Amino acid sequence: MKVYSYSKQVKAVVATQVAIFAGAFAIATIFWTHLCDATLESCLADGGFAKPFTFLLLSVIRPFVFTPLLFVAIIGGKAFGTFGGTLLTALGSVFSGLAVFGLTNLLGKKLAKPWLRSNLPATFKFIRSQDYKLVFAARLIPLLPFDLVSFIFGALDFRVRSVAIATFFGALPEAYLFAKLVDPSETLLSSTLWTLFIFGVCVLLPLIFFEFLSRKKGTGMWQLMKAMYNEINYEVQKNNDIVKRAAFSPDKTPVVLLYGFFSSRRAMTVLERMLTARGHQVLSFNLGGLMGTFFTRDILETANFIDYKIKRQIERHGFKKVNIVAHSKGGMVGLWWALKLGGHKYCDKVVTMGTPFCGSRFTYLALLTPLGLIWRDVGQMRPGSRFLKSLHDVEVPDGCTVYCMHSERDGVARGIAGIFRPKHGKERVKAVAMDHISHFEFLYRRDVGDKIHAILSSDGENVSSETNEGASPDALAPANSKGDAPEGPAALPKRA
């Protein structure tokens, strides 16, 4: 059986995109044709006193019938006049934006926010402090799909108040332009000039005023944007460099850390410090991907890469064995290397944390978009993929033990979905329940470091029976009191 076919993934994504666009167009056409029998004026012709409320209800429904904002702006202009239509359209855009925002906000709190804190803390700080300006900017760019950016705002866990207020004022110019265009007494030139005036008074001047106040406090958008740029630039340039330690002891088995999807080596910083403080030698490699840093690389390709890197380190330093500690997607890489590429000859223990061995439903978010044309790994991690079937169709050989740390609180690999189930050698797979840990907490919790240390320092026979329900939630310093990963490029330690 062929493990993976990129060409089939491309064909499936293209076919899906065509079907989505065709379906969206059909839904929008059927809905508005049924609602507006003759012309747009007929949509609200018999509304009476309830007409504004009907219009606001249509505004909330609009994104779910795949209709652009300008469409309801035109309806509002025809039904309520220029100023009434503008205000109602802007208010309706708040309700529709919050409806889409709410759908992804819960997901953002569980995944996007922890990811940003672990990988790009300065970027996270920029987003949290400047969210209202980012919403303003997004609403003012007509080429950005209104509902898609609302979806992104929810995933990034923007503040609800910022999204609502900035959406209202940011939607005014577009709402005013299209409401005025349907006024027969107005020309395109006068409509455009009035729109620019509204933009300047309602949007540009307040934005400049708030930016001026922020810069006096040292929290201006430009200052924080430079910090974000420096952080990402640091990740891209420095993360590719492996800083070699002065010496390794060939008598101590090193630990190879592998991080997960769309993460960088920074994500393993706290865990590396914890293991180093407990006397372990730690190795980590840049696994490549987006911008050469954020791990979106093919799993099979990455497994071959670490096979080369580990063998090179064994030859250079005289190691007899290595141990693998891997988070999320990194666990698939580590097991493919150990069980499919003969890595078990050099590895006694593979410890996985929150690895989605049954696949992740979140991969569909990429496979339903053009991202599925670029990232091969999302097809490999799709539930029921050929890659996953092939990964489970193995035997765990004698001398190699797999420890699967899993949790009922893990939103990516919940409960038993985080346990590897090979075809043969199941007795050499140990399930380690950590049910008080969420997906990204595996990267920095002190009790996780203690558990990994116990596994690596013993035969591990007893670790699988413990759940650690009462373990301390504190992370290793210098993480802050909320358990966040250290902030800034200075948090990166030297790597081997």
What's the short version?
With 496 residues, the protein is of the alpha/beta class. The protein has helices at 6-35, 51-61, 69-119, 121-129, 131-140, 146-155, 160-181, 188-216, 221-238, 269-277, 299-317, 329-340, 363-367, 377-380, 386-392, 446-457; strands at residues 255-258, 282-284, 322-327, 347-353, 401-406, 429-433.
Structural overview:
The chain has 2 domains: 36-231, no CATH class; 244-491, 3-Layer(aba) Sandwich (Rossmann fold). The longest helix has 51 residues, at 69-119. The chain contains 16 helices and 6 strands. A 6-stranded parallel sheet has the order 2-1-3-4-5-6, with helices on both faces. The protein is of the alpha/beta class. Strand 1, helix 10 and strand 2 form a beta-alpha-beta unit. The two termini are 37 Å apart.
Low-confidence stretches: 465-496
Whole-Å distance between the termini? 37 Å
How many domains, as an integer?
2
Q: What proportion of the residues is helical, as a percent range?
A: 40-55%
Q: Could you say what the CATH architecture of the largest domain is?
A: 3-Layer(aba) Sandwich
Subcellular location: Cell membrane
InterPro entries: AB_hydrolase_1 (IPR000073), AB_hydrolase_fold (IPR029058), TMEM64 (IPR015414), VTT_dom (IPR032816)
Protein name: TVP38/TMEM64 family membrane protein
Main location: membrane
